[in-house]
Amino acid sequence: MVFEYILKESNIDPSEVNIDQSIDFGSTAAAFSGGQGDYTIEFEPGATALESENKGYVVASLGTDSGYVPYTAFSAKKSYIEENEDTIQSFVNALQKGMDFVQNNTPETIASVIAPQFTETDLNTIKTIVTRYYEQDTWKNDLIFEKKSFELLQDILDNAGELSKRAPYEKLVDTSFAENAAK
Known about the structure:
With about 180 residues, the protein is mainly alpha-helical.
């Protein structure tokens, strides 16, 4: 959906491009390196693996080209939030500490710290990925889910025909915990 949105924003009609969506997402890199398609969309570490094996090159970033799309959001029932404000705030504070760490450290340091979470990926690949994200300004400074990003997400969903009506930001998004954590 993000790719098709970017195409439309670039005045390219996605129906004029042969986009093969029949390939299992986990198999797209193998299909591409096996000769299927001229381009592929890959998450990491797939994109970096294609480059390191000289089977492809990263030519663009959907994240950079689309703007801040909230790929990860945490949701809770209103009743849970009301009954567990301290738990929610502690959770958001911990996430903000992670965001602060990323903002205040080098890609090499970040890669070394997160490497144990990615045992299937060697440290040099992790460094390459983190450096790419760092240079692309992938990570925000805070966790505040801005209205602009909420609207962008809805634009993407609407463009893909997946949204029957737009949702009101003010009724669905509570930024108070993120704002407190950012202080």
